[in-house]
Design a protein that fits this description.
Blueprint lengths: L2 H7 L14 H25 L4 E5 L2 E10 L3 E6 L1 H9 L2 H16 L10 E7 H10 L7 E3 L4 E8 L4 E3 L2 H7 L3 H11 L17 E4 L11 H11 L3 E7 L2 E6 L4 H16 L9 E4 L2 E4 L2
Antiparallel strand pairs: 1-2, 2-3, 4-6, 5-6, 6-7, 8-10, 9-10, 11-12
Length: 287
């Protein structure tokens, strides 16, 4: 498969970034831009929730600590990924993403049923953020790769919420029962191609959400990997796009690696900028 065919299969526009070197003045400008973004976004949050208190974390100003939130009490909002997206996006796209964040912060807690359970895939950075900031119990989860985690959530039209013990108690399900149901109800989990389908073909999983969950069924991927061979690769770019093909190490894989990194940087909610091989029952970084 040629590199041109691989790039076309991504079905996404490439983002070209030229780096000329970061001077001291450029560093100061970047810091000023970051400070301005934090100040403006915090002001919008304060306007939307005047009774809450918003303060940047010392040493990590893009982490906003929240107290007196009418629904959450104490909470933390991480602006890192939104800010990264805004650096690549248009002003209108950036404002829309910030507005989406504020909308979810304002919402009342939704009512869930067992049919709302799903499983998402996120990277180690996201999981570290969850473990360090979540006030309640951790949701059921599985580590499926070097830096990839499958996590149980509950879905609603407005948001996706981690399914901690408190949520599962309300649903009347044990952690294992909820996990099994979440996997079954996440449609993309069952979208794994058969080994024979990979002959001369690449796969682009594209949709509104849960595309990353195609990586969850480790048992089935193990069978596919055994039949396809060691050159199977996959990229979980975002919840809207996953790419998989059989590509050996070399220039073509390097081209895919660059494309994945660029698409990740341009995504509002990137899962991972890496590409993976299947080794020893889990997803590992492709060397």
């Amino acid at each position: 498969m040629s590199l041109d065919c691989i790039r076309q299969a991504f079905l996404t526009a490439a983002v070209v970034v030229t780096t000329l070197g970061l001077s001291a003045s450029a560093e100061a400008q970047t810091a000023s831009e970051t400070e301005a973004f934090i100040k403006e976004t915090t002001a919008k949050l304060q306007e939307a929730l005047p009774q809450a208190v918003f303060e940047s974390e010392p040493g990590d100003p893009l982490q906003i600590n929240i107290t007196d939130h009418p629904e959450l009490g104490e909470a933390v909002v991480n602006l890192h990924r939104v800010y990264s997206f805004c650096q690549m996006a248009s002003v209108d796209e950036c404002n829309a993403e910030v507005a989406r964040l504020i909308y979810f912060m304002k919402r009342s807690s939704p009512e869930f049923t067992p049919s709302d359970l799903r499983v998402i895939v996120r990277d180690a950075e996201y999981w570290k953020y969850v473990t360090s900031t979540l006030r309640g119990s951790l949701p059921p989860h599985r580590q499926i790769g070097e830096d990839l985690f499958a996590i149980l959530v509950v879905d609603s039209p407005q948001s996706i919420t981690l399914a901690g013990t408190e949520v599962l108690d309300e649903l009347g399900l044990s952690a294992e029962e909820a996990w099994e149901r979440g996997v079954e109800q996440t449609d993309t989990v069952g979208s794994i191609p058969q080994a024979v389908d990979y002959k001369g073909r690449a796969f682009a999983f594209s949709g509104e959400e849960y595309m990353g969950s195609v990586l969850v069924d480790i048992a089935r991927w193990s069978v596919v990997s055994d039949e396809v061979g060691p050159d199977l690769m996959i990229a979980a770019v975002s919840d809207q796009f996953v790419f998989s093909a059989v590509i050996p190490d070399g220039p073509n894989l390097d081209g895919v690696r660059q494309q994945v990194a660029e698409d990740c940087a341009a995504a509002a909610r990137c899962i991972s900028p890496h590409i993976y091989r299947f080794r020893g029952g889990k997803w590992v970084f492709a060397d």
